[in-house]
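Posting for a labmate who doesn't have an account.
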Amino acid sequence: MTPAARTQAAIELLDAIIAAAREGGAAADTLIARYFASRRYAGSKDRRAIRELVYTAVRQCGEPPSSGRGAMLLVAQSDPELASRFDGSQHGPAAIEPGEPVAERGVVPAWIARELERSGIQSASWPALVERAPLDVRARRDVDARELLSAFPDAQPIAHLERGWRLPAGSDVASLAGAVEVQDAGSQAVSLAAQVGPGMTVIDLCAGAGGKTLALGDTMEDRGRIVACDVDRGRLSRLAPRAERANLTIVESRLLDPGREAQRLGDLQAGADLVFVDAPCSGTGTWRRNPEARWRLTPERLSRFVAMQAHVLEVAAPLVKPGGAIVYVVCSLLDAEGKDQVDNFLSAHAGWTAADPTLPIGAAHGRGVRLSPAQDQSDGFFVARLVAPC
């Protein structure tokens, strides 16, 4: 493909991504994969260049742009070589017209900016929210990570994580599945708040595909019991093969019925040493990986997440044995989903207290700890450890 044709392809993809964000359609990565699946003529260099153009444009537009062309014209304003590709050639974009609409440069939509400021996230740190993330992995406790990753000369241990390693973005670690798990440094760090050990009974209440379940099981040295739960059958189904590859035998999956979770968890009432709640959230801390997600978030959607989080905490509380704990985690920087949720829970549950999560990174925030991309070079999280009365 010519450089002009690559630019036009990026514009077409941006149009699809903008429409999907507006209408609740597929994520950008999915749309990009579908696009190239139907265009076999695009070689690996073409795909890489087009993808880079797409994400560069997405990261530079705070508000959802009106068109893919307008977004690409914004990038072209500071890239003369890119601007020259608007040449009207057969497969390239039309020439730039005087006064043509150009997307507005920014980091976040205006309403999210207000929420971030209310949550104590200052504007100077916003650009870090959409920078490209490195590739972090967690090595299994019984493997020699240094030897295993010797084929990756740029791999570096993450100082504050015993089994964490950082690789350049795009590194292919598929061949190491089971021995290492792709997991952001922040995600690895918040898992430490669980303070689990061998022999414990642990419930991972919002397990998804099980990234944190695997980290907990590894720390427990595959001794005890982990009940991994979720309402999403598709995501939960991916956990069993991952656990098998990781040589974990203590993990069992349990599919829950939304709104009727307690009925499926009756046998676990007051029986868990720990309930790990990685709650559904806005994902404002993960925009480095999914920058178009900030175009999908609306005040109404945020309100639904807040209600869902409060509900999940209510489901979790009766499962904890006296003196046991809930570890509440959201990959969000917004107080509505983190600090405020914990304050509301403690106000409504007499005898429960907040304990120090004792994380190796992050800063105290309210009755928990917050991690941020700007300060911690990780995804953004809020984590709190809530201890049941004895």
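Reply:
Got it, the structure tokens are right above this. The two ends are 67 Å apart (CA to CA).
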